[in-house]
# Entry
Amino acid sequence: MLHSAPRIERSALARAGWAALAALALIAPASAQQRDPAYSAARASGQVGEKVDGYLGFPVPPSAETRRLADDINIKRKAVYAERADANGATIEEYAFSAGCQAISRTVSGEKYQAPDGRSWLTRTAAEPQRDPRCL
Amino acid sequence: MTAQQLTNRARAATSPVMQGIGSGKRWLWRQAGWSGAVAKGMMLFGGMMTTAGCVSVNAPDKPIVIELNINIKQEVVYRLAADAGNTIKDNPDIF
# Structure
Protein backbone atom coordinates (compact mmCIF):
# COMPACT_ATOMS: atom_id res chain seq x y z
CA MET A 1 0.00 0.00 0.00
CA LEU A 2 2.81 2.32 0.86
CA HIS A 3 4.36 1.78 -2.57
CA SER A 4 1.18 1.83 -4.57
CA ALA A 5 0.06 5.26 -3.42
CA PRO A 6 2.82 7.22 -5.17
CA ARG A 7 2.38 5.02 -8.25
CA ILE A 8 -1.30 5.92 -8.47
CA GLU A 9 -0.38 9.57 -8.00
CA ARG A 10 2.16 9.38 -10.79
CA SER A 11 -0.20 7.72 -13.20
CA ALA A 12 -2.91 10.20 -12.37
CA LEU A 13 -0.44 12.99 -12.97
CA ALA A 14 0.53 11.45 -16.31
CA ARG A 15 -3.09 11.12 -17.29
CA ALA A 16 -3.71 14.75 -16.39
CA GLY A 17 -0.64 15.71 -18.42
CA TRP A 18 -1.94 13.86 -21.46
CA ALA A 19 -5.35 15.43 -21.02
CA ALA A 20 -3.74 18.86 -20.84
CA LEU A 21 -1.74 18.16 -23.98
CA ALA A 22 -4.82 16.95 -25.79
CA ALA A 23 -6.73 20.04 -24.70
CA LEU A 24 -3.87 22.26 -25.85
CA ALA A 25 -3.84 20.48 -29.22
CA LEU A 26 -7.56 21.24 -29.56
CA ILE A 27 -7.31 24.83 -28.39
CA ALA A 28 -4.07 25.87 -30.07
CA PRO A 29 -5.39 25.83 -33.66
CA ALA A 30 -8.45 27.79 -32.53
CA SER A 31 -6.44 30.64 -30.98
CA ALA A 32 -3.85 30.75 -33.77
CA GLN A 33 -6.59 30.53 -36.39
CA GLN A 34 -5.97 32.17 -39.71
CA ARG A 35 -8.46 34.16 -41.73
CA ASP A 36 -11.59 32.45 -42.92
CA PRO A 37 -11.09 31.87 -46.70
CA ALA A 38 -14.30 33.81 -47.39
CA TYR A 39 -12.88 36.76 -45.43
CA SER A 40 -9.56 36.58 -47.31
CA ALA A 41 -11.45 36.49 -50.61
CA ALA A 42 -13.63 39.47 -49.60
CA ARG A 43 -10.52 41.48 -48.70
CA ALA A 44 -8.68 40.55 -51.91
CA SER A 45 -11.67 41.39 -54.11
CA GLY A 46 -12.33 44.71 -52.35
CA GLN A 47 -15.73 43.67 -51.01
CA VAL A 48 -14.53 44.72 -47.56
CA GLY A 49 -11.87 47.23 -46.56
CA GLU A 50 -10.17 48.58 -43.48
CA LYS A 51 -11.82 51.69 -42.05
CA VAL A 52 -10.11 54.54 -40.20
CA ASP A 53 -12.06 53.70 -37.02
CA GLY A 54 -10.59 50.19 -36.73
CA TYR A 55 -13.46 48.20 -38.21
CA LEU A 56 -14.26 46.63 -41.57
CA GLY A 57 -16.34 48.61 -44.02
CA PHE A 58 -17.84 48.17 -47.46
CA PRO A 59 -16.21 50.02 -50.39
CA VAL A 60 -19.08 48.71 -52.56
CA PRO A 61 -22.63 47.80 -51.56
CA PRO A 62 -22.24 44.41 -49.84
CA SER A 63 -24.09 41.18 -50.45
CA ALA A 64 -26.00 39.76 -47.48
CA GLU A 65 -23.27 37.19 -47.01
CA THR A 66 -20.47 39.79 -47.07
CA ARG A 67 -22.34 41.97 -44.62
CA ARG A 68 -22.83 39.03 -42.25
CA LEU A 69 -19.14 38.13 -42.48
CA ALA A 70 -17.96 41.69 -41.79
CA ASP A 71 -20.47 42.25 -38.99
CA ASP A 72 -19.31 39.04 -37.31
CA ILE A 73 -15.66 40.09 -37.49
CA ASN A 74 -16.46 43.63 -36.33
CA ILE A 75 -18.28 42.28 -33.28
CA LYS A 76 -15.26 40.15 -32.44
CA ARG A 77 -12.94 43.10 -33.01
CA LYS A 78 -14.99 45.29 -30.72
CA ALA A 79 -14.82 42.65 -27.97
CA VAL A 80 -11.02 42.57 -28.29
CA TYR A 81 -10.81 46.39 -28.42
CA ALA A 82 -12.98 46.70 -25.33
CA GLU A 83 -10.83 44.29 -23.35
CA ARG A 84 -7.52 45.87 -24.41
CA ALA A 85 -8.81 49.43 -24.03
CA ASP A 86 -9.82 48.64 -20.47
CA ALA A 87 -6.40 47.13 -19.76
CA ASN A 88 -4.75 50.32 -21.08
CA GLY A 89 -7.09 52.83 -19.49
CA ALA A 90 -8.29 54.09 -22.85
CA THR A 91 -11.71 54.31 -24.50
CA ILE A 92 -12.80 51.69 -27.02
CA GLU A 93 -12.84 54.38 -29.73
CA GLU A 94 -9.27 55.42 -28.96
CA TYR A 95 -8.01 51.84 -28.97
CA ALA A 96 -9.97 50.96 -32.11
CA PHE A 97 -8.58 54.01 -33.90
CA SER A 98 -5.01 53.04 -32.92
CA ALA A 99 -5.59 49.52 -34.19
CA GLY A 100 -7.15 50.94 -37.36
CA CYS A 101 -3.95 52.89 -38.09
CA GLN A 102 -2.00 49.65 -38.04
CA ALA A 103 -4.64 47.56 -39.79
CA ILE A 104 -4.43 50.03 -42.69
CA SER A 105 -0.64 49.79 -42.68
CA ARG A 106 -0.87 46.01 -42.86
CA THR A 107 -3.11 45.92 -45.94
CA VAL A 108 -1.48 44.38 -49.00
CA SER A 109 -1.56 45.53 -52.62
CA GLY A 110 -5.05 45.41 -54.09
CA GLU A 111 -6.89 45.58 -50.76
CA LYS A 112 -9.16 48.51 -49.97
CA TYR A 113 -8.74 50.98 -47.14
CA GLN A 114 -10.56 54.12 -46.10
CA ALA A 115 -8.95 57.48 -46.84
CA PRO A 116 -8.14 59.82 -43.91
CA ASP A 117 -11.31 61.79 -44.74
CA GLY A 118 -13.29 58.82 -43.38
CA ARG A 119 -15.49 58.54 -46.49
CA SER A 120 -13.70 57.65 -49.73
CA TRP A 121 -11.96 54.34 -50.38
CA LEU A 122 -8.46 53.82 -51.73
CA THR A 123 -6.72 50.77 -53.12
CA ARG A 124 -3.49 49.79 -51.45
CA THR A 125 -0.46 49.88 -53.72
CA ALA A 126 3.19 49.12 -53.02
CA ALA A 127 3.47 52.67 -51.66
CA GLU A 128 2.69 53.60 -48.04
CA PRO A 129 -1.05 54.02 -47.46
CA GLN A 130 -2.53 57.47 -46.78
CA ARG A 131 -3.36 57.61 -43.10
CA ASP A 132 -4.67 60.03 -40.53
CA PRO A 133 -1.90 62.38 -39.35
CA ARG A 134 -2.39 61.08 -35.80
CA CYS A 135 -1.23 57.61 -36.90
CA LEU A 136 2.43 56.94 -36.23
CA MET B 1 -23.38 129.69 8.48
CA THR B 2 -25.29 128.41 5.46
CA ALA B 3 -28.88 127.20 5.64
CA GLN B 4 -29.18 123.45 5.29
CA GLN B 5 -32.24 121.49 4.33
CA LEU B 6 -32.85 117.79 4.36
CA THR B 7 -32.30 116.49 0.85
CA ASN B 8 -32.65 112.77 1.27
CA ARG B 9 -29.31 111.15 0.42
CA ALA B 10 -28.10 113.90 -1.89
CA ARG B 11 -25.52 116.48 -0.92
CA ALA B 12 -26.70 119.10 1.49
CA ALA B 13 -28.58 121.77 -0.43
CA THR B 14 -26.38 124.79 -0.02
CA SER B 15 -26.73 126.73 -3.24
CA PRO B 16 -29.87 128.62 -4.30
CA VAL B 17 -30.27 126.34 -7.31
CA MET B 18 -30.17 123.24 -5.18
CA GLN B 19 -32.68 124.75 -2.83
CA GLY B 20 -35.08 125.41 -5.65
CA ILE B 21 -34.73 129.16 -5.54
CA GLY B 22 -34.90 131.38 -8.60
CA SER B 23 -34.08 129.97 -12.01
CA GLY B 24 -33.19 126.70 -10.38
CA LYS B 25 -36.87 125.82 -10.31
CA ARG B 26 -37.09 125.73 -14.08
CA TRP B 27 -33.92 123.78 -14.28
CA LEU B 28 -35.23 121.25 -11.83
CA TRP B 29 -38.52 120.98 -13.72
CA ARG B 30 -36.67 120.47 -16.97
CA GLN B 31 -34.51 117.89 -15.25
CA ALA B 32 -37.59 116.08 -14.00
CA GLY B 33 -39.14 116.20 -17.50
CA TRP B 34 -36.05 114.77 -19.06
CA SER B 35 -35.64 111.97 -16.55
CA GLY B 36 -39.35 111.15 -16.90
CA ALA B 37 -38.93 110.66 -20.64
CA VAL B 38 -35.88 108.53 -20.02
CA ALA B 39 -37.82 106.47 -17.49
CA LYS B 40 -40.65 105.95 -20.00
CA GLY B 41 -38.12 104.92 -22.62
CA MET B 42 -36.43 102.54 -20.20
CA MET B 43 -39.77 100.95 -19.32
CA LEU B 44 -40.66 100.53 -22.99
CA PHE B 45 -37.24 99.09 -23.74
CA GLY B 46 -37.46 96.78 -20.74
CA GLY B 47 -40.86 95.61 -21.90
CA MET B 48 -39.50 94.82 -25.34
CA MET B 49 -36.57 92.96 -23.81
CA THR B 50 -38.91 90.86 -21.69
CA THR B 51 -41.06 90.00 -24.69
CA ALA B 52 -38.01 89.11 -26.76
CA GLY B 53 -36.70 86.95 -23.92
CA CYS B 54 -39.96 85.05 -23.67
CA VAL B 55 -40.00 84.26 -27.37
CA SER B 56 -36.40 83.07 -27.57
CA VAL B 57 -36.57 80.57 -24.69
CA ASN B 58 -37.03 77.33 -26.60
CA ALA B 59 -35.49 73.91 -25.87
CA PRO B 60 -33.45 72.58 -28.81
CA ASP B 61 -35.46 69.96 -30.69
CA LYS B 62 -32.38 67.96 -31.77
CA PRO B 63 -30.03 66.12 -29.39
CA ILE B 64 -26.56 67.56 -29.10
CA VAL B 65 -24.17 65.24 -30.93
CA ILE B 66 -20.51 65.26 -29.97
CA GLU B 67 -18.17 63.72 -32.51
CA LEU B 68 -15.89 61.53 -30.38
CA ASN B 69 -13.50 60.64 -33.16
CA ILE B 70 -12.09 64.16 -33.42
CA ASN B 71 -11.20 64.09 -29.74
CA ILE B 72 -8.70 61.24 -30.08
CA LYS B 73 -5.31 62.73 -29.34
CA GLN B 74 -2.10 61.68 -31.01
CA GLU B 75 -0.50 61.04 -27.59
CA VAL B 76 -3.14 58.40 -26.91
CA VAL B 77 -2.60 56.76 -30.29
CA TYR B 78 1.14 56.79 -29.61
CA ARG B 79 0.67 55.21 -26.18
CA LEU B 80 -1.59 52.45 -27.52
CA ALA B 81 0.39 51.70 -30.70
CA ALA B 82 2.50 48.83 -29.36
CA ASP B 83 -0.42 47.15 -27.62
CA ALA B 84 -2.66 47.55 -30.67
CA GLY B 85 0.06 46.01 -32.87
CA ASN B 86 0.27 42.99 -30.57
CA THR B 87 -3.51 42.65 -30.53
CA ILE B 88 -3.57 42.50 -34.33
CA LYS B 89 -0.78 39.88 -34.36
CA ASP B 90 -2.53 37.81 -31.68
CA ASN B 91 -5.85 37.75 -33.52
CA PRO B 92 -4.98 36.95 -37.13
CA ASP B 93 -8.43 35.50 -37.76
CA ILE B 94 -10.22 38.83 -37.37
CA PHE B 95 -7.60 41.24 -38.76
In short: Residues 26-30 of chain A have pLDDT under 50 and may be disordered. The longest helix of chain A spans residues 4-31.
